[in-house]
Amino acid sequence: MRILYLSCHPHLRTASNAGYSTHIRETIAALRGRGHDVVPWIAGDRGAAPGARVAERPPAVSWARRVVPGFAWQGLRDAALVRQDVMLDPELRGVIRRVSPDVMYERAAYLSGAGVRCAERSGTPLVLEVNAPYVEERRNLHGAGMMEAAGRRWERRVVRGAALVVAVSSVLADRLAESAGVRRDRVRVQPNGVDLARFHAAAPSARAELGVPPGAFVVCFVGSFIRWHRLDVLIEAVARLAQQGIPVHGLLVGDGEVRDELVRRAAELGVADRVTFTGTVPFERVPGLVQAADVCVIPGHAWYCSPIKLFEYGGVGKAVVSLDSAPVREVVREDAECVFFDGSADDLAAALRRLHAAPAQRAAMGRALHAAVAERFTWDAAASRISGWMTDVVGGACALTCPPVDS
Predict the structure, then answer these.
(1) Using one digit for the tens of pLDDT, what is the confidence trace for 180-197?
(2) N or C: which end of the chain has fewer CB within 10 A?
(3) What is the domain-level CATH number for residue 335?
(4) Which residues constitute the domain of residue 327?
């Protein structure tokens, strides 16, 4: 098939180190690996030099953000997104005419409706990948805005306008079907995945270059330093283990808005020398950093997320302790492939303490999670399922079997 891959959000770039960028790159590569002709159209990459880093926020924008009230600021940002989205239509219609795709596959983004509008105008079926309830996510990240009602109408519109929707978790799929008023079988579930050529059990460890003390029990997190990842809980668990005489060392790979708070918290708890903050690192270094760990941790995530880090940890063959959540439970077996904790620092520390005392269990869990990931959660496996759904869409099967519910 000829697939036009869309990302219409003006600020999402394939050169980013964020999880969304990994998802975009890996999905395109996996679909191509299955023999499809994939033409990417990434709005955030338009006009950017190949490989260029994502630009910092201009000083004038940072100044305005500080002086404009939050509610009004979000309204201005949302209005700008709507304006930018409408301006994409002529260019995107031209791309569709030039490419003449069999199907369009779009990574949905907050207030991005150009893909659905242009798909309907051209008569091209659209498969919409949804990774979050975007209005709720926007509010949680940035606070309430003036266009929430418009955002909810937009979300309903794009879900109903797609031939098929692909959600990253069952709980998100249920939510989208209910809020948009479509039959649940129009919303399929495809969790995130991993590239085993990059994240594998033979990846060389970066432990020596980190300068971690010999014999340290290294617990690792990889990802963005945002509030819902609850890295404060991980640092508090490290402090509890240190108080109990365990030679624990926290390894936090990444960066983000709460880094300074985390550094201060580690100092307040007396474990500044037991926590390494790597900052942003090139993606190719991440497998070696994961390999340096004894246990990898998912201390928190949004209720709808499919954490890419889970599959990357499993690719390298590491034991994992995760917040107890529906999206993680639907892809792993408790205790055999993952240990769950209740979200508190005490319970996380207890889980880590048990695994510190049981190296054989850690090794067995790592092997089991690696086997599960290799069998079901590679990007290629995801592309295989998505390809089948797109074939159904192109053949008209979904139009016959998955009509929207009248509301």
Answers:
(1) 999 999 999 999 999 999
(2) C
(3) 3.40.50.2000
(4) 207-376
